[in-house]
Amino acid sequence: MKCLTLNTIKSPLELQQRADLTPGPGEVVVQIKAAALNRRDYWITLGMYPGIELPCVLGSDGAGIVTNCGDGVDSAWIDREVIIDPGFDWGDSPGAQSPRFNIMGLPRDGTFATEVVVPVQQLHVRPEHLDWHESAALPLAGVTAYRAVFTQGHLQAGETVLVTGVGGGVATFALQFAVTAGANVWVTSSSPTKIDRAVALGAQGGFDYTIEGWWKQMARVGAPALIIDSAGGAGYNALLSLADAGGRIVNYGSTAGPPKKVDLFKLFWKQLHLIGSTMGSPADFAAMLELVKKHRIRPVVDAVFPLEDGNSAVSRMASSPQFGKYVLTND
Questions:
Q1: Which end of the chain, N or C, is more open, meaning fewer C-beta atoms within 10 Å of its C-beta?
Q2: Which CATH architecture has domain 143-276?
């Protein structure tokens, strides 16, 4: 097998040749046809992620074909086309992950490889309307967006929704899912091109968050009942100002760092709900797949790279130029 391995922080991934994998009890080997990148992979290469253990094969998202089964696994899985749920050991509570929760691609070797070993319970049959690249783009960002929009955000048809930072994988799925659910979706971005692409996916329009007071423009078209945000940072109080009374703000990240302050007066006077969210449970993953299959939602793939050129994809993430997902292929 071939794999892209991170051996040293702030160094390029190394393409290595290793022995073919053997599944243990309850496990399968999946021949990876395509894998997708997440911001998580980029942060790990910089050393800006907790619990880094090296060397490690990165990659949380993958789709492929089952080629081998370990003891206790039904051999009917052989030759099935699958996608992999990248969240392991969620635990028994639907409300939050357990302390044992971990994500494929650290500490467990991930999908930037020609094959991977996973427990059979992580497998789902690949949606038939998706190609390999789209299938690989779906898992981590898809389940994160689903949990933020529905499980935590409790989106209802007809509501006004704001998705910040559109173009990233999770934000793009959040836009697609909310539009599919019948919401009136608006977006923010510093890129007019990304806003235009969001409109093509069903957004009502968008706002440049780098413009002072941008939120006042949106307030004139309607206060959002639900805001999906991954940035936090200095602009967070603008979201508190913008949210409708009784509204929900769901955060699944803090790429801009913590807010310098939170206006508690706005929080309690408007009776807002600030909600945290991350990845998703096995039930979230299954529900996300059903939504995608029912409505034939197609993940947005920005660019495809051969596995051997994975470092080019990782380096591009530094400036976040993409709209949708970067995918590595073993075709």
A1: C
A2: 3-Layer(aba) Sandwich (3.40)
